[in-house]
Automatic annotation (TrEMBL):
Coiled coil: none annotated. Pfam families: Paf67 (PF10255). InterPro entries: eIF3l, TPR-like_helical_dom_sf. It comes from Agrocybe chaxingu. SUPFAM superfamilies: TPR-like (SSF48452). GO terms for molecular function: translation initiation factor activity. This is Eukaryotic translation initiation factor 3 subunit L. The keyword GTP-binding does not apply. Keywords: Cytoplasm, Initiation factor, Protein biosynthesis. It comes from the Eukaryota. GO terms for cellular component: eukaryotic translation initiation factor 3 complex.
């Protein structure tokens, strides 16, 4: 058979008038290929933008250092396990370590970028954003989007804590719980100051503020703090402890929320937060009224967090000054300033040393004013330190001019 085919193709007696075009069709080299009949793929603008964003996210994700990725994974696992020891180390040490090393002058990666590392865990991403925006406020300059988004994230966090079906199982260190309340009030305070400077705003910023509704309103901030107090029944807990109730009686009084350390400490810190907010709003009598069940002594729970301890005495002392209770103010400032002096070595190692030191400087100034208006020999060490720091101003106040 093969020989027959070979003979056929080697035949020399093929007719010369055979029309080869009938055999090979119209696909000769001189016929151009037409592609107009092939449908071109249509990509709408939204799909194109999504593809570009995905590519940009992949590029940004690849820029995150591997040690930071590992840290975030470890941090997330510690939160999932409610491992307070590991969470504390990650929060107080790891976060600040990598901030100084990689993000001292820039933002941390956005939550959406690191979401794949934590399996899109919504609760951890809320906590991560809380740290993210706190970093923006402390190290960088927040823009209007940061201010609005930080408020939205705070609302998500407090809605989760207050409106879930029963108490949440989340456990966080007391230091972090205080920082959540403290930062919430700080961002509210900064927003109010920023909003009041109307002449520096662009037209777009003015429109966003006009449409912003309750963003960082005094009512919304007060509502959160009072809700945490009521949910935790912290005042009932303090009174029951003072009356010597048994743990079983206290548990029955405070209910399922008040029994959990997370809610109890958030309620306690909310009392101090309300003290601060009412001072900013100028209602010094109500500020002290909120504190009526809290004893200012070394056994109070707020003393376990140094920053809260210092802030409590500072705002209570400030209230006394504004109500012209100068001896009470002096006594308050002397107590906390002596504490800071004794613990200075520890504070120097603390990542919050700068904040505590600045608050101490303000208290020395207020002490000097009180001491000039109401001289007393309560503590010569503090008085001498204040005179050394503000010698000229101190002399002018003493002369009445």
């Amino acid at each position: 058979m093969a020989q027959q085919r070979l003979a056929l193709w080697n035949a020399e007696d093929l007719e010369e008038d055979v029309d080869l075009s009938m055999a090979i069709g119209n696909y000769g080299p001189n016929v151009p290929y037409e592609d107009t009949h092939i449908a071109q793929p249509q990509i709408d603008e939204s799909t194109l933008i999504a593809m570009q964003q995905h590519m940009a996210q992949q590029a940004a994700f690849s820029q995150i250092p591997d040690v930071v990725k590992s840290f975030i994974v470890h941090f997330h696992q510690a939160v999932l396990d409610n491992n307070l020891a590991e969470i504390t180390v990650a929060y107080e040490s790891g976060w600040n370590k990598y901030t100084e090393k990689f993000y001292a002058k820039t933002e941390w990666p956005e939550a959406e970028l690191i979401a794949p590392l934590v399996n899109d865990d919504p609760i951890f991403l809320i906590l991560y954003r809380e740290l993210y925006y706190r970093h923006v406020y402390s190290r960088l300059q927040p823009n209007i989007d940061d201010r609005f988004h930080s408020y939205e994230n705070s609302c998500e966090l407090f809605n989760y804590l207050l409106n879930s079906d029963g108490p949440v199982t989340l456990e966080l260190p007391e230091q972090w719980l205080w920082d959540i309340i403290d930062e919430f009030i700080y961002q509210y305070q900064v927003f109010c100051t920023w909003r009041s400077k109307v002449t520096t705003k662009t037209q777009d910023e003015l429109m966003m503020l006009a449409d912003g509704g309750p963003v960082w309103s005094s009512y919304s901030v007060l509502n959160v703090l009072y809700s945490l107090m009521q949910k935790s029944k912290i005042n009932e807990y303090i009174i029951a402890q003072r009356e010597g109730k048994t743990p079983e009686e206290i548990a029955e009084i405070v209910g399922e929320y008040g029994q959990r350390p997370l809610y109890r400490m958030l309620g306690y810190f909310s009392i101090v937060g309300l003290l601060r907010v009412h001072v900013h709003l100028g209602d010094f009598t109500l500020a002290l009224k909120v504190m009526e069940n809290v004893e200012l002594n070394q056994k109070s729970p707020f003393t376990r967090v140094t920053a809260c301890h210092v802030a409590t005495y500072y705002y209570v002392g400030f209230c006394y000054i504004m109500l012209r209770r100068y001896p009470d103010a002096i006594r308050t400032f002397v107590t906390i300033l002596n504490f800071i002096q004794r613990m200075r070595q520890y504070h120097t190692r603390s990542y919050q040393y700068d904040q505590i030191s600045k608050t101490a400087d303000r208290m020395y100034s207020l002490f000097a004013i009180c001491h000039a208006l109401s001289p007393t020999r309560l503590d010569d060490t503090i008085a001498n330190t204040a005179k050394d720091r503000f010698a000229e101003q101190y002399a002018k106040i003493a002369r009445g001019g």
